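Query form — protein Short-chain dehydrogenase

QUESTION: What is the three-dimensional structure of this chain?
INPUT:
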Amino acid sequence: MTAKTRIALVTGANRGIGRAVSDRLHALGHRVVVTARDPEEAERAAAALGRDARAAVLDVTDEQAPARVRDLVGPVDIMVNNAGIQLDWGHPPSVVPVELVRRQFEVNVLGAWRMCQAFLPGMVERGWGRVVMVSSGTGAFSNGLSARTPGYSVSKTALNALTVLMAAETAGTGVLVNAVNPGQVRTRMRPQADRLPEQAAEDIVWAATLPDDGPSGVFLRGRKETPW
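ANSWER: The structure tokens for Short-chain dehydrogenase are given below.
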């Protein structure tokens, strides 16, 4: 299978970083599956990409949804776990509503975990795959966890841990699993940020198209390995 025939699935692909990643993967010749919770938004995003793009409805908090998408779209070679939410900005960890923490974990950690359980076994069976977890500097001990958004921060730390575990399990199979810190990006979550989604997408897609001798189980920032 050549690079131009890879099938790539992006979660939360209807806007922001996910939309930019989908655009970039499609421009490189990959067949992109655009997923979003809202069917109309998913269809619009896929239609905007054009040929060889398709839409799929996906709520990563639905335990059965990843398997339904797998059954609908078939084998996937590249998966970008981009879907994420931040709900607790400004809440110190001692008073943050635990319900907000739980909702963030459902999307940011368990959502990516469900997707890996649905699609990683097929990648291993076929002997090739790339999985990218869109993480955050707030989830890295080397960068400093953020007390201003504690549930989100800890959820991204857990996502980094999941990356390490999945990479260890798939070592030597042809599947590479890595996390990317895209930096502060101008999205609905960070409307005042300087970095554009298209710039972040370049780094994420680089990780999603690593050569066979590329790293696995690492944290990437600006295409360089950085400490967890």
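ADDITIONAL NOTE: The chain has one domain: 3-226.
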